[in-house]
């Protein structure tokens, strides 16, 4: 496992290694015999969550916690006032759930079900294309282009290789779930990277990416709603049994 | 609802554990609160909590310990943890000189983000690894004197000085608070007897009757 983390830190030096990554990687290492498979799954997952592990701090999780607090405020006023009164408005107790996707709260098998459920429920083709496009440059392999490729595709790719400096304009609004520092290396050959599907569905992908960038927020929403659901389900327990912020941990959420 | 014995307390003190990653903060805490030690403990994510109530100078003190992640990039958020903390345990690893060198950076963190009255204790952990020691006791002792910190060396593995370290910190906080409230004629002193929230500077200390006051 440390080999995979070391390789990851090498291909993505802007992120490097961060505490908590091993929690996300270990299920893949257990599930797959081949470390390479585990690596690519982990790498794909981090494209979604890189903002949580960057040098500047876990800004992704901080945004998620703000969103969670807003959800609590809108859906459960009693809980909102209770958590405020015990000084738990920063929701520190939910930080770990969001950073390592319930890996420490649930058993190993439960987590596999949870992740499968979350990613199946969260599947959005345009997001999937967006993630595929954000392969770290170092991992891209150039595969010679098929002679029958469409001419329109070449134009798209040429434009991209001109803006290889990762300017936000490349993706319209510049709102992306993944760090800007990981650009794509595109040329007249097909770029191919890990689990990516864009090898055979390139042009559709580019179109969707632009839509994603302008419509989706940068907050990974589903885990936030999962935590909100946990809070709502434990409403009575939280109101009755928590008198200070440490009780929220003891309450066994 | 009947309160468990550990929920009966006169004061609630918030303590933060800080220091580089891997120095043993979480194991010090588990040794103090549950008398447990794990050789294979996982890295702390964000902040974790543990509490223990013990008697200090005749008063029941509930210490609410905030165990923080040590890695550099988590510092952006750990500063938020210092709010309202009355004590800080600044831990380094006696076998890792860099963790001792970084103590001054952690002190700066505290001075930037914590209350100026916070009671800081320097702890050199892992004294059981005698053959690997790389930070001399005298060096740490003189550093602590210069910076006016209390200092103790511990081994969470062998349970050496762990209780002592926490107790020294809690006693010192209690002394500062009682001195402060006795020396002033403001209503804070009266609040102790009435069991209301006692405000010391920017911090708040809860008594058990005022269980739901804001931190």
Automatic annotation (TrEMBL), chain A:
Say which domain of life the source belongs to: Eukaryota
Segments traversing the membrane: none
Quote the SUPFAM superfamilies the UniProt record gives: Ypt/Rab-GAP domain of gyp1p (SSF47923)
| Region named Disordered | 149-180
Query: Rab-GAP TBC domain: from which residue to which, for each copy?
Result: 1-122
Gene3D superfamilies per UniProt: putative rabgap domain of human tbc1 domain family member 14 like domains, Ypt/Rab-GAP domain of gyp1p, domain 3
PROSITE patterns recorded? TBC_RABGAP
Q: Which PANTHER family match?
A: TBC1 DOMAIN FAMILY MEMBER GTPASE-ACTIVATING PROTEIN (PTHR22957), YPT_RAB-GAP DOMAIN OF GYP1P SUPERFAMILY PROTEIN (PTHR22957:SF456)
Q: What is this protein called?
A: Rab-GAP TBC domain-containing protein
Look up and give the organism this protein is from.
Capsicum baccatum
Give the lineage. Eukaryota, Viridiplantae, Streptophyta, Embryophyta, Tracheophyta
From TrEMBL, chain B:
- What domain of life does the native source organism fall in? Eukaryota
Entries under CDD domains matching the protein: Rab11_like
A GO molecular-function descriptor: GTP binding
Which keywords describe this protein according to UniProt? GTP-binding, Lipoprotein, Membrane, Nucleotide-binding, Prenylation
Predominant location category: membrane
Q: Which SMART domains match?
A: RAB, RAN, RAS, RHO
PROSITE patterns reported for this sequence:
RAB (PS51419), RAS (PS51421), RHO (PS51420)
Extract the InterPro entries matched here.
Answer: P-loop_NTPase, Rab_GTPases_membrane_traffic, Small_GTP-bd, Small_GTPase
Q: Which Pfam families match?
A: Ras (PF00071)
Topology class, membrane: Lipid-anchor
Q: Name one GO cellular component term.
A: plasma membrane
Per UniProt, subcellular location reads as: Cell membrane
Instruction: Indicate yes or no for the key word Endoplasmic reticulum.
Output: no
Q: Which family does the UniProt entry place this protein in?
A: Belongs to the small GTPase superfamily. Rab family.
PANTHER family for the chain:
DRAB11-RELATED
Stated name of the protein: Ras-related protein YPTC6
